[in-house]
């Protein structure tokens, strides 16, 4: 399987460049018989779209999704679901200032070296606009999962040094969406917004952390030994632009814990087996145990900053580089729906695979 | 591809249970023409083997690897390399005490629910003895990589609350191996040993962190957008028993950094393009940039502790459970060669894939 | 990998229904740096298009391909190449006569049973219009292969009981294309045309055979033991609508041959090793030997005939069914470019894989 | 997935050389909960073993299978099932006569060119002894399939110019196994035996055809558009040593048939939908229709003959070559269980995949 496909049974193949004709994808392996709500897909895309608030980049694209196949009379047919989002005004810009320059901490240098050619317009395919395909495929997956009572909720828990982290708190989507930074605590959210504004004013950018909670997951998802649930989630999350780390359950904190503290005692949960605590984050032995899946994803500060930086051109000669235009000083809020989308794809894929475990 | 295979071109298929006939694996896609040093493979296995020091479990197994195919007159032929390690005395033990019990934070409950059957002897395939296959496949990969000047070095940077972390320090293997906990700083190592002894005395266990450094990596490894180098490394690391988190470069620390701080300026490195700093951890845009790859893996405290714990039996009824026998209070030192092995497989796989990038 | 993707390195993911919004595909793994001739792609599509001659169905669609990604300034970038062909007038037709009927020897019954839903408009995705994606992906593959001196030529060797088969004859494309049935021998071609006309007049259809010759193939393509060159070609060919058989080299005739007759003696071919005969059809031990690859694909008569047939409806009740509209009485001539396209994809995929065989 | 693995959910990874330590394989994805009969597996291996009758090579190896993992108390656990067959006396032979020679129509030349090295002992991995892994994996698959009422029966229908072919005749295994050539018609079988003896006397070899019938298959197996049931069967069959062709249903004969003749009318089969005829061979639109699957596989005469042949050595210089030792003059009878095994793997894999088709 080539590098632009993700998943084994429920599989997304993604395509498109930031300033090409269109971005899009093909979802193969979506089970037949699902009533698909296209408005919900568009809604998820809108959550990722730039220009949603004063702290995000004002690039204004409608990003309308068009479904090309795999749906008949509103219901999935089991055939591949192809979709595209046209890029608008993609030819208008002038990229002469970055054409021959490798922007620091971008994909410019590595991709050019790898392929011997690079579509420099807006970063080409290395742009986070590629996430559009993920959000659409994830929105479809979410709709399938909802038929099984599985729900996915992500939110911002950290921007710079400002934290909101209650280990297993699951806010409502209203709480999350009313915050410009998708942090459900209003007071913390306000401070995060202030920090982002401050970074923008300083022509700088800032990182953060997204937490994701998955509820309603049945026992038994995850394919030992290499496709453990957490391994696929980690793969999915680290494939997102700017992601730098993944941890589930207690994560890195577990490194300083003792077994007596970290172990989750089993209890009789009124007929079903439950755990008294959930340090494991919903996964044990690589397989879901029916508790809420909990994980965090760390994001770096975006590389594009409106300051002069040292760099080199494609001949390796030193140059000074200053990014033009306006850019998000923090990608974390817009990464929230992408994290959810990738999580949805992983869980649905494992749900389908688990049907083959027993004779 | 089923869950017991890892890799696309260089692919390991792993098999075996802790107390079955044998553990082993098949490496497919190893390039032909590599002179294979079987003693080096055995040496790597020995590094993972229990009973190496007074802080590790004294279970004494020779764990001798036998190569069954794919090597002719000491050289790889391009054919699959199968290998086995026989389990010794695997029938001698009595498992009646865990046969019907789900041990807390083990795979017992989830795997039994998933498959409707479970090999309870020593945890069956959920045992960390499965790592044997990874270490062998990784040792072969290391030998191939060494022909390209690529070297992989992992070591312990944290046990409980005791840290040794210099961001991009690469110790010698002598420094690492002379420490019982594989921490190259003697003073820190001593304190880590003391902490582990303390945990053992308290019938408890403790977690930790392993850092991995990969040097000599050419520019261009990683397959956007889903098989980015870090995504495959994360997948690999989170598939290791007891791993709870992965981060590369600055990792979670990047969440509180600013772009102006985190960006790596490009410089002219005497004809080749280098970066002045390496906050990126050797990977930009999902593709290696020629700098040292740096990542961390967090491990939880092992679930097996010699204390009485609450749990349930397979009927969901509450029981008290106390683990028998002696077990490692900390898996981190023995996880070091496993981290290296998985990293070697990922990098070799990407090295081979990169040969197909250009016409 | 789901069922709508083909290939390991050079991979097509196909989508679309006969009367949906669009058909298309995504080619991932195409090497960067290939100058792509879009007119050549359109030309290949035109060869498959209906309405090319008086013996083909007169459905008149322009079938214009639109490339959406993966090409920058006319050159492949290594990124996925997505393309679509819009369906025209797809909403105009009335399908009430087949909505609830399972047409004999079509996919109607099996797909409906499998998925519980079916897009009955023009056969939905089971229509041969799906081949459009293959022809485009094959045309791109052909352009890459031509940089290595590899050429693919298919032609019609049998329609009904009329044969033209000279074992290893490779006609020019002019000879092939000037024949309405793509048979390079004018006299045989004329008789084939007459037979097809006769079948049409009798409201019947007729089968045939396509031969394919691949020249310029280097020694060493094919991945033992399961992905032998012939195994992938067979997979590719039997995935084409209406294909019923595949044979390479002497094929089924080899069953009645003796070893002394069938073996190909090696000879010194002016410095390179050649075979004196080519009964093997260019592949030995599953790997190409540098001689011309030769294979045949058998096609059944198309299932759609303008006669009344017995069938059942979706409730299993007996019905009489007569196909409406005009249809090709013979798909073989239009299958020729599809055979070539699938062959091109297989050979390119193996060419790229072979780069990983040696250290 | 590398070239020595076959299947998507039910996956065999095969390894081993003719004269290495052992041959074997790993079956991953076998559903848990199947009671496994090891004697039946050994019985299938015995059917493939040389030296079964006076017309087969007298090489006498016990070929005892040893199961290493994945089975606990006689039941599959869902874990990978590894197995090996030790090679006996593999070091005794002298191969100096073929060490530097490329035997005509063998894999010697192509594999040596591909990998730059070759295990010349008995053909190394290109030997048909590799089929051992397939037979074991197929025997396991057969046992799973039998729980669903699916049975697979193959037999010899042609040796040289001697035919026994009744389109959809399904003989009993007793009828087949009492024939030295596995042809259920005693009179035809006798003539086939005579022909093989004649070939042996003339130091020559002869080809043939195997027919395979699969009964009890549910409607709905096959994954359009590339993994149609027939495409996977063709892939499987053409991956067998010496196979030259595959056809299903009417196969190549369909090329000369008319649609009115070839179409299978649907009928009401007492509540289930059936077809009146079965020209389609149990598959329509790439998906099984519940009728018996019927296909044929053509095999070439084995390349090893005890006559002097022209060839070249590894330097490309002309040499005379005469094979030493005794060899089967016809592989077809021993290919019968291999055909069945590969078919079983394909059908089981599709059976498991089909569980994911609907929500």
How do the strands and helices of this protein lay out in sequence?
The structure is a homotetramer of 359-residue chains.
Chain A: E1 5-6, E2 11-15, E3 22-28, H1 38-48, E4 65-67, E5 71-72, E6 75-76, E7 81-86, E8 101-102, H2 108-115, H3 131-146, E9 151-159, E10 162-163, H4 173-177, H5 186-201, E11 208-215, H6 229-238, E12 243-248, H7 259-262, E13 266-269, E14 272-275, E15 283-284, E16 287-288, E17 293-299, E18 308-313, E19 318-322, H8 332-353
Helix pairs in contact in A: 1-3, 1-8, 3-8, 6-8
How would you describe the shape of chain A?
globular
Number of helices of chain A: 8
Q: Order the strands across the largest sheet of chain A as they lie in space.
A: 1-2-3-7-4
Instruction: Give the chain pair forming the largest contact, with residue counts.
Output: A-B, 113 and 112 residues
The second-level CATH architecture of chain A is 4-Layer Sandwich
Q: Oligomeric state of the chains?
A: homotetramer
CATH class of chain A: Alpha Beta
DSSP summary, beta strand count of chain A: 19
What is the H/E string of chain A?
EEEHEEEEEHHEEHHEHEHEEEEEEEH
| Helix content percent band of chain A | 25-40%
Q: Which structural class do the helices and strands of chain A define?
A: alpha+beta
Q: Give the termini separation of chain A.
A: 28 Å
Largest sheet of chain A: 5 strands, antiparallel
Strand content of chain A: 15-25%
Please, what is the average pLDDT of chain A? 94
What integer value in Å does the Rg of chain A equal? 21 Å
Q: What name does CATH use for the topology of chain A?
A: Chorismate synthase, AroC fold
CATH homology-level superfamily of chain A = Chorismate synthase AroC
